[in-house]
Design a protein that fits this description.
The chain has an 8-stranded mixed β-barrel with strand order 5-6-8-9-10-11-12-13. The protein has a two-stranded antiparallel sheet with strand order 1-2. It has a two-stranded antiparallel ribbon with strand order 3-4. The protein is globular and about 50 Å long. It has helices at 3-14, 16-38, 113-118, 144-153, 169-182, 211-227, 238-243; strands at residues 58-63, 67-72, 87-89, 92-94, 99-104, 123-131, 138-140, 157-164, 192-196, 232-237, 254-258, 272-279, 288-293. The protein has 7 helices and 13 strands. Helix 5 packs parallel to helix 6.
Length: 299
């Protein structure tokens, strides 16, 4: 022992009160430590931690064009298309085993369907009619009869679409009835599609229509088409898919996506893709919408 330790030992031997005080302090520290370890409340980690930016109705995805974004979480099939397999040749986009097609209306004017067929087209979607956006009257497409006869005579597979401005399920069913009447006697292989789009006009009767209402209209249209024995579908762009329609309520029908890119990026599954409105083909003097069908409806 050094001198300091000897002095301290003698000090405590001669001063019992200090020894008692030191021992008491140690006892207090020990008792407090036991209390806080056994009885004091402890903040526990939560059993599950939510991913930042995620809840039961939203998914966070990596969009190849806009980066990370959140989208509605629908209980439907997701797209299994491989972005690496899309190719561009002579201004046309190709994907393995996919079919190449166009969609037309009276805006294309007179069409030489034999030349269109020779251009390598497999199918055509033809507008049957449209509902006016101001008064809401149903109008047949002035070139429908000419187009469907010409396309089928040229050996092309045919589908039909109706440009809707329905505001009630009754109006949507009325539109479906117009289509069914117009295709009587024709071989329709591809889907019959509900095409509802917002109109940028002050006097549009559909201004302010919400997605829940139009989802119900789409379902009513498709239900009537399906009941008649045809394949029904819904046309939309990516904004409508994520911000307007409830796709889960329409999942039993086929989806036709409009996205003007070289590779489609919709997270959910779809059957046809309209990738440009500026196609040029022999037999058509105007620009025309061009499409790919990932589903072979001819089988």
């Amino acid at each position: 022992m050094n001198k300091l330790q000897i002095k301290l030992a003698k000090y405590f031997q001669n001063n019992n009160i200090y020894k008692i005080l030191v021992i008491s302090l140690f006892a207090v520290f020990i008792i407090l430590g036991l209390y806080f370890s056994l009885f004091a409340p402890v903040e526990k980690e939560p059993a599950m931690q939510a991913i930042e930016g995620y809840d039961e109705d939203v998914l966070i995805i990596d969009d190849i064009y806009v980066g990370q974004r959140d989208i509605p979480k629908f209980d439907i099939e997701v797209s299994k298309l491989d972005p690496q397999l899309f190719e561009v040749k002579d201004s046309q986009v190709y994907y393995p085993d996919a079919k190449f097609g166009i969609d037309v209306s009276e805006h294309q004017g007179e069409i030489d369907w034999e030349k269109v067929k020779e251009s390598g087209i497999d199918f055509v979607m033809i507008r049957s009619g449209f509902r006016g956006y101001s008064r809401g009257r149903i109008n047949p497409d002035s070139c429908f009869e000419e187009n469907i006869k010409g396309a089928t005579n040229a050996g092309l597979k045919v589908g039909v679409y109706f440009f809707s401005q329905a505001l009630t399920t009754a109006e949507a069913e009325e539109e479906a009835a117009q289509v069914l009447e117009s295709i009587r006697g024709y071989d329709i292989t591809y889907p019959i599609v509900f095409d509802w789009e917002p109109v940028d006009a002050e006097n549009a009767r559909t201004n302010g229509a919400d997605g829940e209402l139009i989802t119900d209209c789409a379902a009513a249209f498709c239900k009537k088409i399906t009941k008649a024995g045809y394949q029904a579908g819904v046309y939309f762009n990516k904004s409508q898919a994520y911000e307007f329609y409830n796709l889960e309520k329409l999942a039993q029908y086929d989806f036709w996506l409009a996205e003007y890119q070289l590779v489609p990026s919709l997270y959910y599954d779809f059957d046809m893709w309209q990738y440009s409105c500026e196609g040029r083909l022999n037999g058509i003097e105007t620009n025309v919408d061009v499409n790919i069908s990932f589903k072979d409806y001819s089988k």
